[in-house]
Write a structure and sequence with these properties.
The chain is an alpha/beta fold. It folds into two domains: about 170 residues, 3-Layer(aba) Sandwich (Rossmann fold), CATH 3.40.50; about 60 residues, no CATH class. The chain has seven helices and ten strands. The strands form two sheets. The chain has a six-stranded mixed beta sheet with strand order 6-7-8-3-9-10, sandwiched between helices. Strands 2-1-4-5 form a four-stranded antiparallel beta sheet, covered by helices on one side. Strand 4 and strand 5 form a beta hairpin. Helix 2 runs parallel beside helix 4 and helix 6 packs across helix 7. The longest helix has 22 residues. The chain is globular. The N and C termini lie far apart (about 40 Å). The structure holds adenosine-5'-triphosphate (ATP) and magnesium ion. Magnesium ion binds next to helix 1.
């Protein structure tokens, strides 16, 4: 069964056509990366998958049912995921569970159980301002993952981090995925990040965005730092880059 099926989706905001005839399928346990130019419609696409907004044409199916917020099937980490500064880290990470009606004590216990895995143990009672940038992103990710929804949407989760921290976070996420096998769709501008983490890389054209190519990443699992220097890694990076460049060149012509 596909966890996510996007079929011929179009989306316009008034005169502005953002998505056109977009097709994307993600199987259960697959890690998919979506890469495309800024402003092409990636966040818009996530809003459709999470059910926050609706397509102008086509269908978005999550586990074979139309996407909706009420179905509770999608956990979405938005591009700017802010932790509430007045809540402790533990209370921040339990927030999503509480919002869906779980009692505070149980919500906290569930979130707390993930702190060690997320490298946050000992910071339960800290406030977000006391965390590093990488830790804040891991806390935001924990808050999303703890919901245990069938599909995880991550919109540029490491976009704001310096490159060293970013690499650490990518390797950490590769390891976490290996253990949990979530179904993930990751939006990123970072080709290296996409190739390290994903099974499939979906390259978008500029607006109106469509998937111009789906590239399978041939690297075996588990993956780690050694993969960065593998010949297949460089070859896949090159292919993604060439596809991305091709789409921009065609559109600009
Ligand atoms: N609610 C809205 N109303 C009108 N226009 C919108 C709305 N949401 C997005 N847009 C427009 O749709 C286009 C795509 O925006 P979107 O945020 O999806 O791009 P993106 O690919 O996520 O960009 P980035 O990589 O910079 O995050 C932009 O031109 C944006 O102005
Ligand atoms: Mg965006």
């Amino acid at each position: 069964m596909s966890s996510l099926r996007i079929e011929g989706v179009g989306k316009s905001f008034g005169e502005l056509e953002v998505l056109r005839d977009l097709e994307l399928t993600v199987d259960q346990g697959e890690f998919a990366a979506v890469i495309g130019p800024s402003g092409s419609g990636k966040s818009t696409l996530f809003n459709l998958v999470s059910g926050l907004d609706h397509p102008t044409s086509g269908r978005v199916l999550v586990e074979d049912a139309p996407a909706s917020v009420e179905s509770g099937k999608v956990a979405y980490m938005p591009q700017k995921d802010l932790l509430f500064p007045w809540r402790t880290v533990l209370d921040n990470t339990a927030l999503g569970l509480e919002a869906q009606g779980m009692r505070k004590k149980e919500a906290r216990a569930r979130a707390d159980a993930l702190f060690a895995d997320f490298g946050l143990d000992g910071f339960q009672k800290a406030y977000p301002s006391q965390l590093s940038g990488g830790m804040r992103q891991r806390a935001a990710l924990l808050r999303t993952v703890v919901l245990e929804r069938p599909v995880l949407l991550l919109d540029e989760p490491f976009g704001a981090l310096d490159s060293l921290t970013r690499t650490d976070m990518q390797l950490w996420l590769a390891d976490m995925w290996q253990r949990h096998r979530w179904t993930v769709v990751l939006v990123t501008h970072d080709i290296r990040e996409a190739v390290l983490l994903a099974d499939t890389v979906h390259v978008l054209s500029p607006r109106p965005a469509t998937v111009v190519e789906r590239i399978d990443v041939p690297l075996p699992r588990p993956r780690g730092a050694a993969d960065f220097t593998a010949p297949e890694f460089a070859a896949t990076e090159r292919r993604v880059l060439e596809t991305l460049r091709g789409t921009t060149a065609v559109k600009a012509a």
